[in-house]
Amino acid sequence: MAESILIEGSTRAEKYETLPSQLKKLIAEETDLISILANTSAVLKETFGFFWIGFYIVRGQVLKLGPFQGSLACMEINFGKGVCGTAWERKETLIVSNVDEFPGHIACSSFSKSEIVIPVIKNQNVVAVLDIDSTELADFSETDALFLNKLCQWLSFYF
Ligand code: SME
């Protein structure tokens, strides 16, 4: 049976503090990338209740849909396209307060109002992006960016 994990804290910032140690315990003996990304998605979804959270993995010239939690999503995103492809191109985290104002935003769901995308970088190359969507406008801040970047740095080890 899978171990359950307890993420303490009432605010998002507090939860971000306790999540890494718990997640590391959960993943401790695992080496399979897909299993790790799948359970990381589940933990983030359960802990924060994000509308959509998942990974797009670099496969040649495109991002392919990887493990995620949420509704049906587009399966392929080109380099430089949408928020995900732009984060890949720029190699930087993008916080989009209002997706309707982001030129070229790819709408997988009309419920999505704001978004954060963090590149997973290994040896200076983007190997994947972590994409999180919210039904609230301006739901993501530098606090999210800081923690999620640390998480992605840690995950880059498994690629
Ligand atoms: N909105 C993203 C596409 C992926 S979905 O949000 C799951 C984008 O513009 O790249």
Q: Tags for this entry?
A:
4 helices; 6-stranded antiparallel β-sheet; Beta-Lactamase; 159 residues; binds methionine sulfoxide; alpha+beta
What does this structure look like?
The protein is of the alpha+beta class. It is built from four helices and six strands; from the N terminus they run ααβββαβββα. It has one domain: GAF domain (Beta-Lactamase), CATH 3.30.450.40. It has helices at residues 12-27, 33-48, 82-90, 142-156, and strands at 52-59, 62-69, 76-78, 94-96, 114-122, 125-134. The chain has a six-stranded antiparallel beta sheet, sandwiched between helices. The chain is globular. Methionine sulfoxide (SME) binds at residues 52, 73-74, 77, 82-84, 105-106, 108, 112, 115, 131, 133.
CATH topology: Beta-Lactamase
- Principal-axis shape equals globular
- Average of per-residue pLDDT values: 94
CATH secondary-structure class: Alpha Beta
Total number of beta strands: 6
Indicate the structural class.
alpha+beta
> What is the count of helical runs?
4
Helical fraction: 25-40%
Series of secondary-structure elements, N-terminal to C-terminal: HHEEEHEEEH
Specify the CATH architecture: 2-Layer Sandwich
Number of domains: 1
User: Could you name the CATH homologous superfamily?
Assistant: GAF domain
| Main sheet properties | 6 strands, antiparallel
What fraction of residues sit in β-strands?
25-35%
Low-confidence stretches: none
